[in-house]
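Hi R.,

As promised, here are both runs. First protein below:
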Amino acid sequence: MARIIGDVEVVGTGVGEVIVETWDTLLFSLSLAVATLVYSPTLALLALAPVPIALSLAKATGKAVARRTVAARQANAALTTFVQEA
């Protein structure tokens, strides 16, 4: 039962954070890129050059965090089961 509650909590929190953070990040990044392009196209290209590398690193880090989160939740579920049965 604790695992189901934990799963629902993770999904609810995750969906809420993803929606808010995605829109916030996309709108801010887009407005910053447009403003920089208007100010100086050369500066904009130089400033945006490392973005693909940063996105790749974020994706790789996200996978590592996801693996650790799953492992922690499995350990918590095992501990909860042990305590409830004892």
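And here is the second one, sequence first, then its structure tokens:
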Amino acid sequence: MAISDIAYSYCPTNRYLYYKKVEKKRPALTLASFKGRTIDEFIQEIYQKIYDYSVGINLRNFNLLDDVRKTLNTRVDELEGAFDYDKFPVTPIKRDVDEFFENLKKLVYHETLCASSLISHRVSNLYDINLETEMRILFPFDFKLKITAPTLGVSGSAAIDFLIRQSIIGEIKSEQWHKFYNLGLAGYALAYEADRMENVNLGVVVCPTFYNNRHIPIYRNRTNIRVIIEAWRLMFL
């Protein structure tokens, strides 16, 4: 089973798990599930665009804030243009769809602003600089690490959203916070330890929340790195 199937009890009747494992059917697509999948993939895409741009351009022409933001906003426009209302059994409200894609541009604004500031600060402090090396120092992320832990009943298709410095597990969630996300961190920690034979005791959940009256998403304090405590591990098991 997938770690999410074990840890994330979205439905008290577990009907989604029943559909997937017994009926072999995918749960019906909803706007909420579309948002979750899109944000999960898009945050990785933001990082990759920033990385590729930074290591592939001369410092004289370095303008990450404008160049990468423009590229990513164009990508949001492409995603919005490809959105198909007919794929949803219950047609989403257009206002909600428009708001979601506008929120993606808020995410682009915030992430490119932060990345540009961090990289520019490093550039301003070093005369001789290798941007590829600096990118690995500033953003030591590895995305979608495949893991398998048959002793825990975890399938080979399990993947950690991202890993920081080979020691901190990261999960990406969309908009609404749930306490059982902590169990997901514990599950991935147990699976990673079983697969790699290395201890991992820290984790972070990235869960951006958007508001109409704010141009910057709120990450709250839940994005702080936390200790994956023994109680979460036992609850997962």
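A quick note on the second one: The mean pLDDT is 84. Let me know what you think.

Best,
J.
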